[in-house]
TrEMBL record:
Native organism taxonomy: Eukaryota, Viridiplantae, Streptophyta, Embryophyta, Tracheophyta
CAP-Gly domain location: 184-226
Protein name: CAP-Gly domain-containing protein
InterPro entries for the chain: CAP-Gly_dom_sf (IPR036859), CAP-Gly_domain (IPR000938), TBCB_Ubl (IPR045172), Ubiquitin-like_dom (IPR000626), Ubiquitin-like_domsf (IPR029071)
Source organism superkingdom: Eukaryota
CDD domains: Ubl_TBCB (cd01789)
Region of interest (Disordered), ranges: 134-156
Localization annotation: Cytoplasm
GO cellular component assignments: cytosol
PROSITE patterns: CAP_GLY_2
Pfam families: CAP_GLY (PF01302), Ubiquitin_2 (PF14560)
Bias (Basic and acidic residues): 145-156
């Protein structure tokens, strides 16, 4: 059955699942911009995640049912040329029989000789990871809390300069529109958010997200983004003919 997922706008990223021919239990997510990421650049990202050399890598694009959509054969082509959808899968085929990932030993720990140390002997060590973790846990917790509070404070300061009705430009893509919502939205995550009605159908909804109505706008014109993505000011609606030659 064909996928019912919708294309994301060209200037937005897509979230893809990554699987590997030699690693049956391996699965990872990768977020990329199809227009800005070439197949070669994608291979470089996947080499860092899987250990398969770029020269030994063949990539397949598969849909959310597992059916193959295309072989990504042109390294210079942008990923967008193959029509990826949000939720699709990149399957890495390792062509090197002597690859680090071949033979199953990266997954089957029974193939690896092990040195075992009793808990008593481990605890007697002057330094070990367990002691280090226990020592650092309170600091990490406090640091994480401080970072969250600092981030929310910065977002609140940015939002204080943004008002409903302001004209704005949103990155990435310099998309123009009108501010329709400013504030917290716990259903979307911690901190502050800005709702925008784009002039063009570059959004993802009509102002309703996860069953909650934040604002109203035509379908496909709505977006809710973090305040650091929004610049308010003199951003009139673009004339679609202004760049055409006379």
């Amino acid at each position: 059955m064909a996928s019912s997922k919708l294309h994301l706008p060209a200037d937005d990223s897509v979230l893809l699942l990554v699987t590997h021919s030699n690693l049956s239990t391996f699965a990872a997510d990768i977020r990329v911009s199809p227009q800005q990421t070439t197949v070669e650049a994608l291979k470089d990202k996947l080499w860092r995640k899987t250990g398969t050399a770029v020269a030994s890598m063949r990539l397949q694009l598969r849909d959310d049912t597992g059916a193959k959509v295309a072989d990504l054969e042109d390294d210079a082509a942008p990923l967008a040329a193959y029509g990826p959808y949000n939720g699709y899968r990149i399957h890495v085929v390792d062509l090197d029989p002597s690859s680090l990932t071949s033979g199953g030993w990266l997954e089957d720990t029974s193939l690896v000789d092990k040195y075992k140390m009793s808990d008593e002997a481990y605890d007697k060590l002057d330094t070990n990871f367990r002691k280090f973790k226990e020592k650092m846990a309170p600091k990490d917790s406090a640091s994480s809390q401080d970072d969250k509070q600092q981030s929310e404070k910065q977002m609140e300061e940015l939002c204080s300069k943004i008002k409903v009705g302001d004209r704005c430009e949103v990155e990435p893509g310099a998309k123009r529109g009108t501010v329709k919502f400013v504030g917290k939205a716990e259903a979307l995550g911690r901190g502050f958010w800005v709702g925008v009605q784009y002039d063009e159908p570059l959004g993802k909804h009509d102002g309703m997200v996860k069953g909650i109505r934040f604002f109203e706008c035509p379908q496909g014109h709505g977006a809710i983004v973090r305040p650091e993505k929004v610049k308010v000011g003199d951003y009139p609606e673009r004339d679609p003919f202004e760049e055409e030659e006379i």
